[in-house]
Design goal:
Blueprint (H helix, E strand, L loop, with lengths): L7 E7 L5 E3 L5 E15 L2 E14 H10 L5 E15 L2 E15 L17 E3 L14
Parallel strand pairs: 4-6
Antiparallel strand pairs: 1-3, 1-5, 2-3, 3-4, 5-6, 6-7
């Protein structure tokens, strides 16, 4: 069997204000929407195609998202893909999302990206893959 590799790096804009929830263990959890644009040429004209991706962060990174991000903030995310599957009303459903391991705020002062007063973006990187028990994982 061939080896596999599951890493994703995305840069885009947060689509909604951040809402933090807490697991019973006290671990902070947030899922944010990220709009990622790609320029493509259609019929001789360049257009933007937007892809909307849900990204889930845990622990301190989730708390930093709640403190410094808002709708419109520009961020860079590194993480891994996760496929959720379930059945609803007899229909099989699935959703591909990202579990964020690292997050970096992009942009400058006054652009809603959580920049410090000196205009340099704040940076937060933290692994979010440690859980006390399987009950702490919200999915």
């Amino acid at each position: 069997m061939a080896a596999s590799f599951n890493r994703v790096i995305l840069a885009g804009n947060v689509t909604r204000d951040i809402e933090i929830k807490y697991a019973q263990s006290g671990t902070a959890i947030t899922t944010l929407g990220l709009a990622v644009n790609d320029r493509v040429k259609k019929n001789g004209e360049w257009t933007d195609e937007t892809t909307f991706v849900d990204v889930t962060f845990f622990g301190r990174t989730a708390e930093v998202c709640g403190e410094y991000l808002q709708k419109g903030s520009n961020i860079l995310v590194e993480g891994r893909l996760k496929l959720d599957q379930w059945e609803s009303d007899g229909q099989k459903r699935s959703k591909l999302s990202v579990i964020g391991d690292k997050m970096q705020m992009l942009g400058g002062k006054g652009d809603g990206s959580g920049a410090q007063s000196n205009g340099k973006p704040r940076q937060q990187q933290q692994s979010s893959s440690s859980y006390e028990t399987a009950d702490d994982i919200p999915f």
